[in-house]
Amino acid sequence: MNWYTLTGADGQPNVLVRLQWPKVQQYVTKDFPFWRKDPSLASLEWDSTGDICSPSKAEKLMSEWGVEP
């Protein structure tokens, strides 16, 4: 599983993305802590829009945002 974050204007992560092509292309936000599917997210592996996120940081964000793994 590859993890990415998208940062808001405040410099803080506001979107967490998990990718495992071709099976998983999902994202979650702090304001809507439920996983949603979006196949267009697969491009994050090839462009610089998202920041690579470690699994431990992803777990921390999920915990802070009240997201089920």
Question: Gist?
Answer:
This protein is 16% helix and 36% strand.
Topology:
Layout: E1 2-7, E2 13-20, E3 24-29, E4 36-37, E5 51-53, H1 55-65
Antiparallel strand pairs: 1-2, 1-5, 2-3, 3-4
Please give the largest β-sheet.
5 strands, antiparallel
Strand content: 35-45%
Structural class based on helices, strands and sheet pairing: alpha+beta
Question: What is the alpha-carbon Rg in Å?
Answer: 11 Å
Distance between the termini: 12 Å
Number of strands: 5
Q: What value does the average pLDDT take?
A: 92
What share of residues is helical? 10-25%
Number of helices: 1
The residue ranges in which pLDDT falls below 50 over 5 or more consecutive positions are none
Q: What is the total domain count?
A: 1
Task: Assign an overall shape.
Answer: globular
Q: Within the largest sheet, what's the order of strands? A: 4-3-2-1-5
Order of helices and strands: EEEEEH
